[in-house]
Write a structure and sequence with these properties.
The chain is built from four helices and 27 strands. It is elongated. The chain starts with 5 loop residues before the first helix and ends with a helix.
Length: 383
């Protein structure tokens, strides 16, 4: 995967509640969101200057400046003497501090390059169409620049995140990424349900904070009415609150879900969650009610906080999470009072069921009679 540009992946994503309220942006580069993808303590570079860097913490990115005469090297996560770092952002002279002859990139055009003679620009040019300049090898290679209407250049995530570390993604909990020394991005997915950023390994989404960085596409990122709330369509224990311009992600306490009727967090069992969310979150029972306000007969198997395919109880029964079994509909009216997943569900009236059954039998009888008559006509015609 050659892409993964900051413009496409992080500009329009909402920011988790664990992060600082103020989102740090550098053009199309959402520093705050990228910090959710790497381990706490990781340093990442800026895209407007080589003089500073950000340290990712649990409360968001913290900016720090290198000493005079030093430049931040994102590959080593340290400040080094200017000219020794592979950083060219915000430099009036990209050849500054250089010794000998060297090609360096033009940060606002991935096809362009400068030719350095010691610390002076000796020439410049562009790669041919269909090629772009690769800083690591100092040559033109096959590839095209990404479209960037914001005008901050062809900024790849591998130009700010240090190489040789595994980090996550904001669009999928299972996805992991890896940048090589030459800036090539590798991307894949865990066989389990989550990539755990804090450990840099694959694990399960039930791990605390495992998927906090992920923002679901159905949730709008922009808003105008302060305080407007929206349920997370996938995570029962999360919801979004409008701060006047964008939706900010909030998390309910462990064991609580966001109740769409009360618009607040309540205990898991009593919460009326959004229909699409995963009710295996924060529970270690074997089977759980799927959100079902009609018959309360839908349920699924839970494992490591994830749910499998949906099953249904036989006619005349609902799924009782406490009993871990399908129960007779005579108790459904009492069950729905304290079990929000089935709020509004009603048992099918027995008389209606009998009428439906009788009608079905009568229809079947008529169909059978018509079939026999048609068969007799066929036989008569054959004779």
């Amino acid at each position: 995967m050659a892409g993964y540009y900051l413009l496409a992946t992080v500009l329009c994503l909402a920011v988790g509640n664990a992060l600082a309220t103020a989102v740090v942006l550098e053009g199309t580069y959402n520093v705050t969101q990228v910090c959710t993808m790497v381990r706490a303590g990781t340093r990442i570079g800026g895209t407007q200057s080589c003089d500073y860097f950000y340290t990712c913490t649990s409360s968001g990115p913290k900016k720090a400046t290198c000493a005079t005469g030093y430049t931040y090297n994102y590959k080593t996560q340290s400040c080094v003497p200017t000219g020794q770092a592979s950083c060219y952002y915000g430099l009036a002279n990209p050849c500054a501090g250089n010794t000998g002859n060297k090609w360096v990139p033009h940060v606002s055009n991935c096809q362009a390059w400068y030719w350095c003679n010691d610390d002076k620009i000796a020439g410049n040019g562009e790669c041919a169409d269909g090629l772009k300049f690769e800083s690591a090898t100092q040559r033109c290679v096959y590839g095209r620049c990404s479209s960037n209407a914001a005008g901050s250049g062809d900024v790849s995530i591998c130009s700010v995140v240090p190489p040789n570390v595994y980090f996550g993604a904001t669009d999928s909990c299972k996805t992991w990424n890896y940048c090589s020394d030459s800036g090539v991005l590798s991307t894949s997915a865990c066989n389990s349900s989550a990539f755990i950023v804090s450990t840099g390994e694959c694990g399960y989404s039930s791990y605390p904070g495992a998927c906090d960085r992920v923002t679901s596409d159905p949730v709008p990122t922009t808003c105008t009415t302060l305080g407007t709330k929206q349920a997370d369509p996938e995570v029962c224990g999360s919801y979004y609150v409008c701060d006047g311009s964008i939706f900010q992600l909030n998390k309910c306490p462990t064991g609580a879900y966001y109740d769409v009727a009360k618009e607040t967090c309540v205990l898991r069992q009593a919460a009326v969650p959004i229909a699409t969310c995963n009710r295996c979150q924060d529970t270690y029972i074997g089977f759980a009610n799927a959100v079902d306000d009609k018959l309360c007969n839908s349920y699924y198997y839970c494992e490591h906080g994830e749910h499998g395919s949906t099953s249904t109880c036989p006619t005349g029964k609902y799924f009782n999470e406490e009993l871990q079994a399908c129960d007779d509909n005579s108790d459904l009216a009492t069950y729905v009072i304290d079990n929000g997943a089935c709020s509004g569900a009603k048992a099918t009236d027995s008389s209606e069921a009998d009428e439906d059954s009788a009608e079905t039998k009568e229809d079947t009888k008529e169909d059978s009679t018509e079939t026999k008559e048609a068969s007799n006509d066929t036989k008569s015609g054959a004779k």
